[in-house]
Amino acid sequence: MIKHDQIRAFLVPKFRTISHFLLAQGLTTAGNLIYGFLCLRMLNISDYAMYSVMFGFMGTLTVLLNVGVSNTLAHLGTC
């Protein structure tokens, strides 16, 4: 019975953390979806095209610039 209690004491906090993370990610995704639909409905075609290009450009830059540069800079800052 002690083994069962130890396993439960170990796993319950982990599941709670994972469920909070998944809930936050779900809410963020739903909010972004609603925001995207609002932009789609409220902007005219040329403005939405400009928004889409800039959003794609920013996403590409985020991925390219976060390939480990931030980890390197954080490490150098602690030396």
Please sum up the structure shown.
With 79 residues, the chain is mostly helical.
Beta-strand percentage range: under 5%
In round numbers, the mean pLDDT is 84
Distance, first to last CA: 48 Å
Query: Shape from CA axes?
Result: flat
Number of helical regions: 3
Helix coverage percent:
over 70%
Which parts are unreliable, with pLDDT below 50 for 5 consecutive residues or more? none
**What is the element string, with H for helices and E for strands?**
HHH
DSSP summary, beta strand count:
0
Can you tell me about this structure?
Helices cover 91% and strands 0% of the residues. It has helices at 2-42, 45-65, 69-78. It starts with a helix and ends with a helix. The model has no long low-confidence stretch (mean pLDDT 84).
Which keywords apply here?
79 residues, mainly alpha
SSE topology:
Elements lengths: L1 H41 L2 H21 L3 H10 L1
